[in-house]
Amino acid sequence: MNLVIHTDGGARGNPGPAGIGVVFLADEVLLLEDKAFIGQKTNNEAEYMAFQSSVLTLKKNLHIWKPKKIEWKLDSLLVVEQLNRKWKIKEPRLSDFAQRIWQELATLDVSYTISHVPRAQNAAPDALVNQALDAQLS
Question: What's the rounded Cα separation, in Å, for the pair 101 and 55?
Fold first, then answer.
């Protein structure tokens, strides 16, 4: 099984009320969706928190899903390039997120990639972010 994980995070205002959305697909079949309100955050913090949440959920379910390969897809070029160690991380809070994520990823026994996709190809987790925010703010 090939596992594709779409993540997104967003804030209304920067910083502002923020949410995350994560979608897990196995061979293009929906396995799991997750969304959460995460309080007052910046857009970049929300993007990192969405990715971090996906890693923790993945690790809880690895023994069930048993993927051969994992592909993360994000519409945040900043987070993709920073997690792939291509861009420096100047913001200490984001660096802390990256360090924790790298530690978790290092324990995976499965190959993975982290790639950038256009926003239009990341609509499902974006919708979850907005659902989490709408539910909290209404």
Answer: 8
pLDDT tens per residue, range 56-106: 999 999 999 999 999 999 999 999 999 999 999 999 999 999 999 999 999
How many folded domains does the chain comprise?
A: 1
Q: What is the CATH number of the domain that holds 8?
A: 3.30.420.10
76-103 in b/e burial notation, b at 16+ Cβ within 10 A? bebbbebbeeeeebebeebeebbeebee
DSSP letters spanning 73-106: EES-HHHHHHHTTSS---SHHHHHHHHHHHHHHT
- Domain span at residue 30? 2-137
pTM as predicted: 0.97
8: tokens are 């997104």
